[in-house]
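Narrative of activities, Objective 1.

The group set out to show that a structural description can be obtained from nothing but a protein's sequence at a throughput compatible with the screening campaign. Below is one input-output pair from the validation batch, recorded exactly as produced.
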Amino acid sequence: MSAFPVYTPDENVLRIRMESEIKFVVVEGVDDVPIYESVILSILPGEGLDNWDVIHVGGKSNIKELIVECNSNNFICIADKDFDGKLSSEKVVSLNRYSIENYLICEEALSAALSIALRLKYQDVRDNFDLSIFYAEVEISAKKLLIALFYYQRVISPTLNGERHSWSDAIIHMHPPAWGLCCASIDSLISRLIPEDVTEIEMDNYFSENFESSGVVAYDLPGKMLKVLLQKFVLNYYKGIKSGGSQFNSADSFVATIASSLNRSSSFVNVINPVLSFLYPRSNN
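Output recorded for this entry:
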């Protein structure tokens, strides 16, 4: 038995209904909970806050169901942008990138983590660290994948009977010591998802007519597919200055390290500002 309290999505919904004295921040996945909690704790004051908690309900469809069926005022939700359409509700804060992992692609947050690891001043690292090569690699190599995934998710997948193709865990990066995206892996994934009779022009037209683009492919493509590419990019930068960098050696430790610095990301803090105001109405954030 775990020494830590563990709640299922259904139990968390019941908590919202039963524990009216607590303000709940509702997120989609269980892995999102500690990240949002860490950012909120690092921004808001420790005193003067009502009781609050970050909980998960297991996906955007369950958030949609919650806001329809529960009319209490003790919760606010954060929904990923992803490919499933935006939820329109005053109780929902919608991310303007695919998911929280995409906010790790941030020079402010990455520079903050690097400055600690390198024992350098933040501003010195911030002035030197540049993601332009990373952005260009994703833009050049993965734009067609973004278009194909959106088309598959919105057009093809709803018409399929039985088991659907899995793509969220696909590996699209090159293997070390090479850095970059693997075009062969991307083409192979697209060919598995898209029928031969669907043309690129058809997908491009659908994408341009229906997708709400941020203007940056690295923000719109699922962040989990890019985390290793980003990890290797940051590790290479670190090793160009100093040996070591164990916190950047694996994707999991890298994500944990950068997530702890997301409070330094102005783009992320701005998008969750309604959540901060909900928890602490007197906050000027």
